[in-house]
Design a protein that fits this description.
The structure holds two protein chains of two kinds.
Chain A (H helix, E strand, L loop, with lengths): L7 H9 L5 H15 L9 E4 L1 H16 L12 E4 L26 H9 L3 E5 L33 H8 L5 E5 L6 H7 L2 E4 L20 E5 L2 H11 L17 H8 L8 E5 L9 H16 L3 E5 L7 H16 L20 H12 L2 H13 L6 H24 L2 E5 L15 H5 L6 H6 L3 E8 L6 E7 L5 H19 L12
Parallel strand pairs in A: 2-3, 2-4, 7-8, 7-9
Antiparallel strand pairs in A: 1-3, 4-6, 5-6, 5-10, 9-11, 10-11
Helix pairs in contact in A: 2-3, 7-8, 8-16, 10-12, 10-13
Chain B lengths: L5 H10 L6 H18 L34 H5 L5 E2 L2 E2 L10
Antiparallel strand pairs in B: 1-2
The chains are: A alpha/beta, B mainly alpha.
């Protein structure tokens, strides 16, 4: 069995046992990238592959192992990083022409943590421009293709990270989740993705989309691998003023506990508002089967209502554009990024306007203009002010629900992966993809998505999502690992895209 | 909600410092109206008794001692500059014709 088909935990164990070297592991993944990632017809999960850098890091890792001093359990296990996180010496484009060729002079804290733990960085993964989108079609460098069907989207914005993991190009990846950008691609590609509690993972060096919503998190093929990665990247960071002082711990332990399939005493709430006729039949069928499995493992299942969820999407699409219109003002063509100078004797403002028109894609322009509108005087109270109040109502709904139950459960996304091109000019229909994932970002609570199966009608992956109270990320791992274990027993292992099964 | 006219969309683009072409305006303006129409549903949902939330987790400002740590060198800071001169960012004229 080629090493690439093993989980990150298995790869780490093999390194520790001396069965494989980090150079071998890293080379095997680089070979898979070379074989399947071609931008023309392949997955196109990567915008930049750093073969030399990854192999040099792997060699250093092997030397540490040989001298008996690995830096971390995952020392030597390679990883891919979403191109919205800054990396010294590696391009960071955010999927935008605005940052083409930009090489940051500093590392994001999470990237520094990966390096300090010895994980070779394979490269940077594709994404919707500045993380705005649900399909990775908004990348200025062309879409990522879903390993399950290359004519379909891998979800977004972190479609590159999810597809890389699904196609065995990397055992681990980092993603970022502002309204579902880790979890929805997980559902589309049959992989696992976690949005940790807001503030529990540093945002320093994450090019901000919406500061009050963004969170970095793990993208993997198993729940345990996500736990290992979240424990590695989490923790307080003095460089991020929104970083929470309380560490989130016990995740790996919770995942291992969940693996015993004992959910006695756990109360699970099925979210009434996140179901209905608008949800694809196969998505609901697999979801209901997952809920039945939870009940079989001893969990108590109740239906709960979070009535303000119906306003979550509208509130989100005011708060997010408001924050991003302000965040993206820094791309002014003066200090870094694209500068386009029109003819004649243009002023700085002229240069700024022409550069921003040339450097930003349609979705970025739409959201900047919506944000500008929502923040303008005369509309501020009616839109942005209302949206912030709805945020309060959603947080209160969560609080009430978590008085009754330990975790909430819903399908991750309303449908399976749709064909590339289907929703490109229909922003509203694209926004509906995030219906179930957005409330967690508005409230700061953690969420996990894991595969619930394949929809019978199209054979594509479906996702199930768990949500837990703030700082209670461990609950996600316990319940998630239990369900995963039960499903893997049914399936005889994880679900794998047919074209990517080991021969 | 009143529909945004082409002129109003152009004004928003100006405020956002984006030089939209006429073709882009034709393409984007109707989409903006569809989006605004859908988010308008939240008007009046929450009354005066509901406080606004700007951050999901309550936060206070964070202070620390002012400790000198190494920063970026001028070479590093200017590495991505579109144009530079004498260790500084070089920018186009900042005054308009009317000033």
């Amino acid at each position: 069995m080629s090493w690439i088909y093993r989980t990150a935990a298995e790869q780490a164990a093999a390194l520790a046992a001396g069965e494989v070297t980090s150079v071998e592991l890293t080379q095997a993944h680089l070979d898979q990238i070379a074989a399947v990632d071609d931008g023309g017809e392949g997955v196109h999960a990567f915008l930049h592959v750093d073969a030399d850098g990854a192999l040099a890091q792997a060699m250093a890792s092997d030397e540490r192992r040989a001298s008996g001093s690995p830096l971390h359990e995952l020392d030597g296990v390679p990883i891919a990083v979403k191109d919205v996180l800054t990396t010294i010496g590696l391009p960071t484009t955010c999927g935008s022409k605005m940052l083409e060729g930009w090489v940051p002079p500093y590392d994001a804290t999470v990237v520094a943590k990966l390096k300090a733990a010895g994980l070779p960085i394979l490269g940077k993964t594709n994404m919707d421009e500045f993380a705005m989108g649900s399909s990775t079609e908004n990348s200025a460098y062309g879409p990522t293709r879903n390993p399950w069907d290359h004519t379909r989207i891998p979800g977004g914005s972190g479609g590159g990270s999810a597809a890389a993991v699904a196609a065995f190009e990397a055992p681990l990846a980092l993603g970022t989740d502002t309204g579902g950008s880790i979890r929805q691609p997980g559902a589309m590609t049959g992989t696992v993705g976690v949005k940790p509690t807001y503030g529990s993972v540093s945002r320093y060096g994450l090019v901000a989309l919406a500061n009050s919503l963004d969170q970095v998190g793990p993208v993997t093929r198993t729940v345990l691998d996500s736990a290992l990665l979240q424990e590695l990247i989490g923790g307080h960071d003095p460089k991020d003023s929104t970083s929470v002082p309380t560490p989130v711990t016990g995740l790996v332990e919770a995942a291992r506990q969940g693996g015993t399939k004992d959910l006695a005493g756990v109360k699970v709430g099925v979210v009434k508002e996140l179901a209905g006729d608008a949800w694809q039949t196969g998505v609901m069928q697999r979801f209901e089967e997952s809920v039945a499995l939870l009940r079989q493992m001893g969990a108590e299942i109740v239906e709960v209502s979070l009535p303000s969820f119906v306003h979550a999407m509208a509130a989100y699409y005011l708060i997010l554009p408001a924050e991003c219109s302000s965040n993206l003002a820094k791309f002014d063509a003066m200090r870094y990024g694209l500068r386009v100078t029109p003819e004649g004797s243009p002023s700085a403002e002229d240069v700024m306007k022409v550069s921003r028109d040339a450097g930003f894609g349609d979705e970025v322009k739409r959201r900047i203009m919506i944000g500008t509108y929502a923040l303008s005087s005369g509309y501020y109270d009616a839109y942005y002010g209302q949206a912030q109040k709805i945020r309060t109502l959603i947080i209160e709904d969560f609080k009430k629900a978590f008085e009754q139950v330990d975790v909430l459960v819903s399908p991750t996304a309303p449908s399976t992966a749709f064909p590339i091109g289907e929703k490109v000019d229909d922003p509203l229909s694209m926004y509906l993809q995030d219906l179930a994932t957005i409330p967690a970002n508005l409230a700061g609570v953690p969420g996990i998505s894991l595969p619930s199966g394949l929809a019978p009608e199209d054979g594509l992956p479906t996702g199930v999502q768990f949500l837990a109270p703030v700082l209670e990320d461990a609950r996600l791992y316990r319940v998630g690992a239990a369900l995963e274990t039960a499903l893997f027993e049914q399936w005889g292992g994880q679900i794998v895209p047919p074209a990517y099964k080991e021969n | 909600m009143p529909e945004l006219s082409r002129d109003e969309v152009r004004h928003l683009a100006d405020l956002a410092r984006i030089d939209l072409s006429d073709a882009e305006l034709e393409h984007l303006a109707p989409q903006l109206n569809v989006i605004l129409e859908s988010v308008a549903s939240i008007q009046g949902v929450a009354g005066d008794d509901v406080v606004a939330t700007s951050h999901p987790i309550p936060m206070t400002n964070v202070f620390r001692d002012d400790v000198v740590v190494p920063g970026l060198t001028p070479v590093q800071a200017l590495a991505g500059a579109p144009a530079k001169e004498d260790d500084k960012f070089s920018v186009p004229r900042i005054l308009g014709d009317e000033q």
